């Protein structure tokens, strides 16, 4: 068991992705890549809300900054917004790779919109493992907040999806 990455700050990003179906890509820097989960309803600040998070392909670290339009015919075609970003710390004793392998991740987020502990729990394996993204009980937990609807715009540029599409689309 390695405690090497305990306390180390790494980056996280949540990209709002208006593809065939709108979803939120939750990405954690881990082992030199962005481990990624597609969350159809987006993250919640309410600990009683369990949000389905489908693990999807790793992305390069440089993708964390991407906001723009993926052309028709390409993987993930649609509009991408940097909805939230910041740093995270591993809250567990095991290193992140072990937590990921074992299907229980707990991270402390310091973002613009999301803060505090979030757990990812794997509920089904297979080609597209299914996890649940759950807000942990702490000072940042708030059942009345709903940042997905009340804070819909980019933390990077302040733009909404429509403006990104107009300015970055072909
Ligand atoms: Mn996506």
Automatic annotation (TrEMBL):
- Keyword Isomerase listed? The answer is no
Q: Name one GO molecular function term.
A: ligase activity
Keyword Membrane belongs to the record: no
Q: Which residues form a coiled coil?
A: none
Alphabetized UniProt keyword annotations:
Ligase
Q: Which residue ranges does the record assign to the DNA ligase D 3'-phosphoesterase domain?
A: 15-122
Concerning Pfam families, the annotation shows: LigD_N (PF13298)
Instruction: Tell me the domain of life.
Output: Bacteria
InterPro entries found in the cross-reference section: LigD_PE_domain
Q: Where is this region: Disordered?
A: 139-170
Quote the protein name from its UniProt record.
Answer: DNA ligase
Give the species: Marinobacter vulgaris
